[in-house]
Amino acid sequence: MDDRGDNDAVLRPIIRYTRTVDGVAVAHTEVGDGPIPIVVAAPLIGQLEIAGEEPAFEQFMTRLTVGTRVLLFDRRGSGLSDRATGPAGELTLPRLAGDVASVLDACQVDRAVVLGFSLGGATALQFAAEYPHRTDALIVFGTTPRALRDHGYPYGMAIDHVDSWIEQAVAGWGTGASVEVDGPTMAGNDRYRAWAARLERHTASPGGFRQSVQASFANDVRSVLGAISAPTLVLHRRGDQAVPFENARYLAERISKAQLVELDGVEHTYFLGDQTGLLSCIRDFIDRHVAGGALRTAVRAAERRDAHSLGWNALAPGEREVATLVAEGLTNAEMAERLDISPFTVDGRLRRAFAKLGVKTRVELTTEYRRPEQR
To answer: Which residues are within 8 A (CB) of 252 and not within 5 positions of it... i.e. 6 or more apart?
Structure first.
């Protein structure tokens, strides 16, 4: 079932800024208006407006908003947030955790489910340890407590490999090279790689990326794991080549209220691969520890709407918008210009409209549009 409901706002985020305690402007947005707040700790690569152009990201976030209110922001030093101008120390985990608190304050949210993907997971762990009174539950996916190998911690990168790894990563920055490891099943998809390359370029310059990566190698949350008191869900895909599964086991064994779930798949990028299984784990956990079954109820209601709303009634507002413009004879490029959205977003909406209407061509869609009983 497609449990997206009628929320289409993630494709046109309203960007706002908040100032952190040390004066950094952090760009943030929110999608969904459900009763359960979720704050997503920003990952290394991200830009709020460009991210929403990828249909898989849009679908995941829109499905996540069923019954929830999701707060998203760009990491300091990247995306639409202020660029880092000082030393890499500005990107320490305590400062990044403080940025999460600043976003919650700006959105007038006292407590939230804290969700961290990949490198954002370290920020989420730090936040849960420092701000237990603001953490209803903690969920991390594809996360490592430390990037470098150390005594008693054999899972990271050897320190003598770091410089060469950084040079290789910087050399490929802006080309979509990250897809090879982070989303291997999409490595041969030219459209996805072009979007990933654009996202990288809009995240940071090569120099800014270098600074962020160097700072990430200094991060280490091992010392705070014992201080995390919130119910915690550690999610990891079995075939993740970017972050080996042993990292997830290490976290779960050292957080008192942690549950470890091993997922099928090879994708490190959370919104690729099996979205339904991942979302089900997230929702079930939140329902048990925070929502008291409210999410399950909201999802079932959305599924019933989708099951009984075929044809034009099944289209979300953005999908209906592009379908109408197709019937008027506009090309994808013309729709993108008129609606002030990217061609990627047009393509994603149109593909979903085709699926819901049961058509395969623009001519068939136009025929459906001209049937009054369908509208």
So the answer is: 232, 234, 258, 259, 260
**33-41 mean pLDDT:** 94
Tell which residue, 258, 272, 290, 277, has the closest CA to residue 121: 258
35 and 156 inside one domain: yes
Distance CA 85, CA 52 (A): 27
Would you say residue 269 lies in a domain? yes
Over the stretch 248-296, which tens digit does the pLDDT of each residue have?
A: 999 999 999 999 999 999 999 999 999 999 999 999 999 999 999 988 8
Per-residue CA distances from 72 to 48, 79, 117, 338 (Å): 8, 12, 12, 27
Count structural domains, the chain: 2
- Its domain, for residue 293, covers 9-302
What Rg, from alpha-carbon coordinates, does the chain have? Answer: 21
Q: Are 228 and 94 in contact (CB under 8 A)?
A: no
Question: Whose structure tokens read 């940071």?
Answer: 204
Final residue of a structural domain among 276, 302, 328: 302
List, in sequence order, every beta strand (DSSP E) within 190-348.
232-237, 258-263
* Average pLDDT taken over every residue of the chain: 89
One domain, residues 113 and 223 = yes
Note whether 74 and 218 are same-domain residues.
yes
Strand-pairing partners, residue 261, are 235
- Do 366 and 277 fall within a single domain? no
What pTM was estimated for this model as a whole?
Answer: 0.84
**Does residue 274 sit within a domain?**
yes
* Rounded Cα–Cα distance for residues 4 and 312 (Å): 15
